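Hey,

The postdoc asked me to send both predictions to you directly instead of through the lab channel. I've kept everything plain text so nothing gets mangled by the mail client. Protein one:
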Amino acid sequence: MFKSVLFWKIATLLGLILLMMIPKEMLLNVISERSGYRQSVIDKVSDSTSRSQKILGPLIVVPYSEWVESEVDGKKKRERINRSRYILPEVMTVSGAPDVDVRRLGIYKAQVYQGALNFNAQFDATALDDLIHDGVTIGRPSLVVALSDSRGIQQISPLTMGSQKINFEPGAFLGRTANGVHAELSLAQLQQKKFDISFTLTLTGTNSLSVVPIGRSSELTLQSNWPHPNFVGEFLPLQRKVDEKGFRAHWSTNWLANNININFASDDPHVDFNALPAFSTSLIEPVDHYQLTERAIKYAILFIGLTFFSFFLFESLTSLRVHPIQYLLVGAALVLFYLMLLAFSEHLGFTLAYTIASLSCSLLIAIYLSAVLGGWLRGGLFAGGLLLLYGVLFGLLQSEDNALLLGAGLLFIILAAVMVLTRRLDWYQVANPQLLTGQKSSETNTDKTVDKPVAVGGSNTDAFRLWD
């Protein structure tokens, strides 16, 4: 087998394919680096304004202390324990219309939103009835609104509670992971049992906005001028409308569905603010060209392998030969496609960049192969086949859900074409080193010559010569 010229030719082709994987990995590193640059720009914009916002509240925090008896080493010990009672709203509705502004830094950009959110809630303070007894001292209650980044608070109206107006003060009482504002209440106000509150929060943030549905029944209505929302998180909107002018979405849920009240059931809750489920929308770019380019590069080995195998098949069926250097140059043009795609997509968008890169590289390969293969028709056919592959790849990238189905169908068609073209080819004859080089048998000293094989298409033994 190791004396077979065909074996060494196939081994050389596989080696060339593996060699082309080096620039492919380098391109993946470039994509990671450029994507990191973009994220650093988003971080810079977030640092100068505010980050993604997650809102928890409104809820009422009632601090209290009570005497507790315990037994230590057989001795009774009496000490005062400080706790907090959390009253969640029975009904909570939030509505707003944040406008999105694109901030640019170089070629990169980030989405910054700003707008007013209107909060309305209804509370039932009967949860405090069990605290009204001797030994319990109730402190000053507060209505709390917590945010992930309080720098985004542009303005907040006074809390409206019946006919009363109460100003908000800095600080939230929900642990170190949350900051925000609070409005001090009185026990007399809570003794109303059921009461309504409202306020308006003007907020700035970047990339995403989330509201924790803390009420027994919670609703959120958002509308914005951003036409590319991504509805993420634990709850999808029940109603949504997205067009070129923006979007409108409505969420609704309750404690039976989300069990959020369980997190505040005890008077000493350890609430992970960031882990609470929320109504969420992400203001994203319509196409992440870095992700699409990375997915395209994963098909590079298929493109290079199919092109090299086409050359090999062309050599086997005709009298022309393609040198390894020529294989390598065509492979370099195929890899250059991905670099051009990455570079142009940062400025022109993915679709236009893909069109320019595929046409440019196909034209370059067509001009080069027209000389290598001895005619514009052959070079044009190879370039046309390459453009067809680029078109299929674009369809795979745009239809991620059907990528496996389309890829399997493409491979089946390619395999069927190869089997049809080579169904009459004598591979033993192709692999014969004497026939491949056109030499006589070294074991024969007579004047008898070996008949030259006839290749498919009627050519002579040059059809099977390798790179000599």
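Protein two:
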Amino acid sequence: MEEKNLQNEETTVVRHQEPKKNEKQRPVHTTPYSQEIQKHMNKCFPGRTERVFFDKLNDYLQIDIHILEAPTKQDFHVLYTVGMSALPMQLPDEFYPDYQMLERAELIALLPSGWQLPEPVEGETYNNTFWWPVDLLQYLARFPHEYKSWLGWGHTIPNSDKYVSYDEASTKLCGVMISALNEAISMFHAKDGTLINLYALLPLYKEEIDFKQQEGGEALLQKMVGINGFGMIIFPDRPNVCLEEGEKDETEKES
């Protein structure tokens, strides 16, 4: 894939604007690829117990969250969306027809084995300290369809223009880069020939987002070599790889 044809991936920060609301009630879309996505993910992560949090509040896209539970304490939970691929994303005009295969996608998040996600009681308020990765998956899965845009490798989405942390009680992570696991996991062809891309979420600190915008996504990943799972296993208090030594000391004192 030629870099010149993917001009926005390395530098794009996707900003928030209110999507235009249609006065007419929109139909709720579900993906026709749900069984194939589930089969692919179970093949990639075999022998795991699977749970599903069904999206009961959808008003446009049904984004269900599947959880493949960590088989051991040394492993990680795999969360993935089923629903984002219901509609094609709106790619830049210059991507057609050569890169039309980027239109359909789903998202993956990895959580450490100790992360608890109990089935919530109906009507009960979710504990954001545990549930923000689930909310983030659902928000980002709807994002390109609500905003008539697209998400691809290297795109960065801050949590508002003020870089608000995802959970004030537990983390300073405040944005996310769209990344990917190995190729065998990150894409597959459905029976009808459609390519389904599975992107992994890489939550970031503000300083890491700034670095990525200056140096690119690959350079940021190189700085994360020593971090568990290249930062893609979501530890809320993981080290910030773009803090200077003095800043790291101050951060340690705060914690």
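Summary for protein two, as requested: Residues 42 and 194 are 19 Å apart (CA to CA).

Thanks,
C.
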